[in-house]
Automatic annotation (TrEMBL):
Cellular location(s): Cytoplasm
HAMAP family, A to Z: HisG_Short
GO process annotations (BP): L-histidine biosynthetic process
Pathway annotation from the record: Amino-acid biosynthesis; L-histidine biosynthesis; L-histidine from 5-phospho-alpha-D-ribose 1-diphosphate: step 1/9
Segments passing through the bilayer: none
Major localization class: cytoplasm
GO CC annotations, alphabetized: cytoplasm
Organism whose genome encodes this protein: Eubacterium plexicaudatum ASF492
Protein name per Swiss-Prot or TrEMBL: ATP phosphoribosyltransferase
Domain notes: Lacks the C-terminal regulatory region which is replaced by HisZ.
């Protein structure tokens, strides 16, 4: 690839981006422009390393990477599983840890145990469908929602929900609990397949540096 080509990163907005940039700083990659909280810029550049960064909503990150608008993306595993894009998942960054779970009131346990038909509300219909149909072999109706998923079983829209659980405090406050774990989640690095071939040396070196830094953190 030409020497002056920028390696472009799509970072999930919010805590994920902050933690990613903090990790990158540990391996000597900085982007001072991104520290300006008042900036209206959309693209941030590290000229020395020939790297560009931009922020995107989590669900959009895999799309930018699949279509080559970004070479590399940093996004939660939940988004990768839900979006099902043609990208390479190359590294577990170890932060942003949580779980995808089936949650509901205690009375829903029997429906799960007997694999009875029920309604499942989720922001993640693909993950929910894969879990119930391919892993539990249970027929359910998936209802897609965008916010306050915990409300669904309380008002009778669904028997259970599939959602991300961090502390579980919101569930407990609303009379719900974790009934089954679908999968553990954390932040991941994903790469465009063409970029992996064309920029293999740079990307492989970056992954190696990150792995080395992450191994330090795990031994502390």
């Amino acid at each position: 690839m030409e020497e002056n080509r920028y390696l472009t990163f799509a970072l999930g907005k919010g805590r994920l981006a902050k933690k990613t940039l903090a990790l990158f700083e540990k391996i000597g990659i900085t982007c001072e422009e991104m520290k300006d909280t008042d900036t209206r810029k959309l693209i941030f550049v590290n000229e020395e390393e020939k790297m560009r960064f931009f922020l995107a909503k989590g669900p959009d990150v895999p799309t930018y990477v699949e279509y080559g608008a970004a070479d590399i993306g940093i996004v939660g595993e939940d988004t990768i599983l839900e979006e099902k894009r043609k990208i390479f998942e190359v590294l577990d960054l170890g932060f942003g840890k949580c779980r995808m779970c089936v949650c509901g009131p205690q009375k829903a346990v029997g429906l799960l145990q007997k694999r009875e038909w029920m309604r499942v509300a989720s922001k993640y219909p693909n993950i929910a469908k894969d879990y119930f149909y391919n892993k539990r072999h249970q027929t359910v109706e998936i209802i897609k929602l965008n916010g306050s998923i915990e409300l669904a079983p309380i008002v009778g829209l669904s028997e259970v929900i599939v959602d991300i659980v961090e502390t579980g405090s919101t569930l407990r406050e609303n009379g719900l609990e974790v009934l089954e774990e679908v999968c553990p989640l954390s932040a991941r690095m994903v790469v465009n397949p063409v970029s992996m071939k064309m920029e293999n040396e740079r990307i492989t070196r970056l992954i190696a540096l990150l792995k080395q830094e992450l191994s330090k953190d795990s031994t502390v």
